[in-house]
C-alpha cells in the first residue's frame, strides 16, 4: 500500500466512525514508541508472585498456577471466536478447536512441573498455609466447562435424570458435578471451600450458564448442516478436545495430587477423588461423538489416547 493509499484508508476508517483522522494522526505524532516490556506489562506480570512461606518451591507452585490461568483465558478467548461467528465453517471451527486442544495438551504435559518439580517436604509445609484455598476454585476452568457443552453434561451423574432444560439454573447449579467436592447432599451443608467459591462467583456463574447454555461448543456443532457435522477433521478435533480436558488433563492432575498427598485431603478439604476421576462423573462434552463402548469405559480403558476417526 502506497503512502497516499494508506492515508486515504486511515481517513476512511475514522470518517466511518465520526472521527477526525487528523486528530488521531496528531496523537500518533505525539506518542512515544512502544517497547516489549511495556506492551507485555512484564513488570506487572512479574510482580504478581507473593509467597506465604519461605519454601523456595512455593514459587514454582504459584507461577505454575498463574500460567494455568493465562492458558485458561486463551481457551475462553478461542471459544468466543466460535461463539461469535455466525454460519461458521468447519474449517474455522476446527481451527479454533485445534488451538484449544493445543493449550490443553500443554496443560496436561505441564503437570510434570508439579509432579516432578517440587520437593515433597517443601510442598507439604507450604500447602498447610493454603487452607481453605484450592485449585478447585478456578473460575475460568468452570467457565470453560459451561462454554463447551450442554449444562446437563456437567450435572452430577446421580441427578441427571431429575434435571432438564426447564429446571431453574439455580437448582441446576446446586447439582453440578463439582458440588460433590464440598457438599453433603444428605444435610445440604457446604464446606468453606465451596462457600467461599460461591460467595465470590455464583452470581457470575449463573449469568454465564444462561448465556452459554444456548451458545456452547456442543450446541454450535449440533446446529451445523449434517454434511458439515460429518466432517472428520472437525469430529476429531472435538473428540481430542473432549478427551484431553476430561480424561488426560484430569488424570494428570489427579496423579500429581496422589504423588504428594496420597489419599489425604486436598487443601480445601475437598473430596477430590469423588469428583475428579472421569470414571465416576462421566464428564463428557460431546457424548454423541463417542460410541457405546467408549462412553461406558470413559476414563478407564482410553487413558493412553483416543481413536482417530478416518
Mean pLDDT: 89
Number of helices: 17
Helix content: 55-70%
Number of domains: 1
Highest CATH level, the class = Mainly Alpha
Task: Compute the number of strand runs.
Answer: 0
Written description of the protein model:
The chain has one domain (56-296): Up-down Bundle (Methane Monooxygenase Hydroxylase, Chain G, domain 1). The relative contact order is 0.11. The longest helix is centred in the last third of the chain and has 30 residues, at 232-261. The protein starts with a helix and ends in a 14-residue tail after the last helix. The mean pLDDT is 89. The chain has helices at 3-16, 21-30, 36-40, 42-45, 57-83, 90-109, 111-116, 120-126, 139-148, 169-173, 192-215, 217-222, 226-229, 232-261, 272-276, 278-281, 292-296. By secondary structure, it is mainly alpha-helical.
Summary tags:
310 residues; mainly alpha; 17 helices
Give a short overview.
The chain is an all-alpha fold and 310 residues long. The chain has helices spanning 3-16, 21-30, 36-40, 42-45, 57-83, 90-109, 111-116, 120-126, 139-148, 169-173, 192-215, 217-222, 226-229, 232-261, 272-276, 278-281, 292-296. It has a single domain, classed as Up-down Bundle (Methane Monooxygenase Hydroxylase, Chain G, domain 1).
Amino acid at each position: 500500500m502506497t503512502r497516499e493509499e494508506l492515508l486515504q484508508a486511515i481517513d476512511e476508517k475514522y470518517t466511518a466512525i465520526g472521527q477526525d483522522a487528523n486528530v488521531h494522526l496528531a496523537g500518533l505524532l505525539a506518542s512515544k514508541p512502544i517497547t516489549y516490556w511495556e506492551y507485555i506489562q512484564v513488570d506487572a506480570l512479574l510482580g504478581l508472585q507473593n509467597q506465604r512461606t519461605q519454601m523456595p518451591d512455593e514459587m514454582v507452585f504459584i507461577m505454575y498456577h498463574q500460567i494455568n490461568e493465562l492458558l485458561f483465558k486463551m481457551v475462553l478467548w478461542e471459544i468466543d471466536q466460535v461463539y461469535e461467528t455466525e454460519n461458521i465453517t468447519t474449517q474455522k471451527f476446527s481451527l479454533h478447536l485445534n488451538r484449544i486442544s493445543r493449550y490443553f495438551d500443554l496443560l496436561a504435559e505441564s503437570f510434570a512441573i508439579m509432579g516432578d518439580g517440587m520437593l515433597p517436604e517443601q510442598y507439604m509445609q507450604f500447602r498447610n498455609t493454603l487452607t481453605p484455598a484450592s485449585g478447585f476454585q478456578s473460575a475460568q476452568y468452570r467457565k470453560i466447562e459451561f462454554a463447551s457443552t450442554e449444562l446437563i453434561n456437567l450435572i452430577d451423574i446421580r441427578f441427571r435424570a431429575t434435571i432438564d432444560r426447564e429446571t431453574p439454573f439455580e437448582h441446576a447449579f446446586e447439582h453440578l458435578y463439582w458440588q460433590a467436592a464440598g457438599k453433603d447432599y444428605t444435610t445440604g451443608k457446604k464446606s468453606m471451600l465451596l462457600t467461599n467459591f460461591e460467595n465470590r462467583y455464583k452470581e457470575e456463574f449463573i449469568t454465564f450458564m444462561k448465556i452459554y447454555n444456548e451458545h456452547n461448543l456442543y450446541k454450535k456443532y449440533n446446529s451445523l448442516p449434517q454434511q458439515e457435522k460429518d466432517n472428520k477433521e472437525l469430529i476429531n478435533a472435538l473428540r481430542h478436545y473432549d478427551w484431553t480436558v476430561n480424561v488426560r488433563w484430569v488424570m494428570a492432575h489427579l496423579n500429581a495430587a496422589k504423588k504428594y498427598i496420597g489419599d489425604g485431603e486436598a487443601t480445601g478439604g475437598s473430596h477430590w477423588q469423588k469428583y475428579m476421576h472421569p470414571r465416576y462423573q462421566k464428564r463428557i462434552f460431546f457424548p454423541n461423538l463417542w460410541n457405546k463402548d467408549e462412553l461406558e469405559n470413559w476414563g478407564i480403558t482410553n487413558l493412553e489416547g483416543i481413536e482417530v476417526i478416518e
